[in-house]
Amino acid sequence: MRTEEILASCKVALGRWPDHLSESRKNEIISAASLMQSITLAVGGCNDSEMSGQQKKKIRDAHIRASGHISSALGEAQRKEERDRGVNDGN
Fold this sequence. Notes:
Shape: elongated
Low-confidence stretches: none
Largest sheet: none
C-alpha cells in the first residue's frame, strides 16, 4: 500500500509542478515512480512471510530513496514558486 502512495505522490508532483522542477529532479521522480511500480508488481503476489529479510530491506531502502526524491522535488518546486510569487508581487 505504501508503494501506491509513493507512486501517487510522484504523479502529483509531475502533474502539479512541471514548470517548477529541474530536469534532473523530474528524472528522479520518474525513476522513483518506476521503482514503485516494479516493487508493487514484485510483491503483489507475495505475502510478508514469503519475503526474505534481504528483500524486505531492499524494499524499505527503495521507499526511503523514493520518498527522498519526492521531498527534494517538493522543496525545489516550492522554492521556485515562492521566488516567482515574489517577482510577480514586485518584491
